[in-house]
Design goal:
about 130 residues; mainly alpha; about 75% helix; about 0% strand; globular
């Protein structure tokens, strides 16, 4: 049984990593920047839980790229970031939706895969007229 779980985790990780280049090609050039530099440094130092806190603060302050990263961290949790980052589908959706609503194609695709519909701000404003 544990061998099957390891194979499943490995295949999930491989599928996720294989999708990253495709998702990055969908992202507009304006989103090529990194999120909060403190969060990037913390992730590189293996302190993902602290990085997630910075990303959430930046997301709450309106940084859509940090929202995207926070959502992806919650979505993949311990699979990609170790036991210090919980997998939390609901929190992932909150952050990914913030990013998707301002046009993030990566966040839109991840939400689509989760079965969540999202309108961007432009479509919502047109419907509100």
């Amino acid at each position: 049984m544990s061998i099957q779980i390891k194979i499943l985790r490995t295949s999930t990780l491989i599928a996720t990593l294989a999708a990253v280049p495709l998702l990055l090609t969908l992202a507009p050039a304006a989103q090529a920047a990194d999120p909060d530099p403190r969060a990037v440094a913390l992730i590189q130092a293996g302190r993902a839980a602290e990085a997630l806190q910075w990303l959430e603060q930046a997301s709450d302050a309106g940084d859509d790229l940090s929202a995207e990263y926070a959502g992806l961290m919650y979505l993949h949790g311990p699979t990609l970031f170790g036991a210090q980052v919980p997998r939390d589908r609901q929190r992932a959706i909150v952050h990914l939706r913030r990013a998707a609503e301002v046009g993030s194609p990566v966040a839109r695709e991840m939400l689509r895969r989760l079965g969540v519909e999202v309108e961007d701000a432009v479509v919502a404003s047109i419907r509100g007229c």
